[in-house]
Amino acid sequence: MIRSREELKAASERVFCEDFLVPLFRAMGFQDVVYWHGGPLERGKDLVMWAPGPLGQRVYYGVVAKVKKITGKVAMQHEVLQQIQQALANSFRDPTTGLAQYVTQVIVACTHDISKEALEALAPLLEQQSLRGHAEFLGSDRLWEMAEKRLMPWLIADSLSHARSTLLEIDPDYAVEANLTQNAIHYTITPKHAGAPQLTLNTDADFPNTEEGGRLRKAFAEFIRTGGPVTVDEPIVPFVNPPPLFRYLMPSKSQGPF
Question: 44, 139, 157, 217: least buried by Cβ within 10 Å?
């Protein structure tokens, strides 16, 4: 699954189609979304799918996936136009009925932004071929907006699964679990085996000589004794040279007192 705009812009055509466009169009309600994987069956269409028309009929769509920027340059304009024409002119086999069908709408989906200048340069070419009402262009910004609306549950689940795998693998001796609350991330660190080395934290605590300082001193002493939760401001309890695992989990503390 593509997890960010940056990953979208860097995706290969296969990843773009399989991990982004196919789940996106399925989530939007398109039926029988098929990725052709290139080859002779593609005929200008990287994906084919259909949606019900206003009278209940099947309206077939072809998707042209572009991982190169669509610019106003003549060569690129003619490349895109040729792919649209090819997608519309060549039939394909409906994967469920087995019958030959033609797409009547083409979606050109690009992993990069499509500039206004590029669209303006394409407009007269589409007009000349009577294709203006048969082609839709989706650049990375619009695609990501659609993904955030339609794929958010999948994006969240995939990101959490990826984060969980990372946390389990970052240290050979300790497993890390994360609990997200409204205002913080809480980490639980447990040994993976009986021979895991002890994690040692050194601190130079400096509690103020006030009533609040006394309360914090007692709470911190209880934390040392029992391991129970305690909240103390960083300037009061700076940790010195913490283990690498702690620095990994809190990169903002990589310099100076921890």
Answer: 157
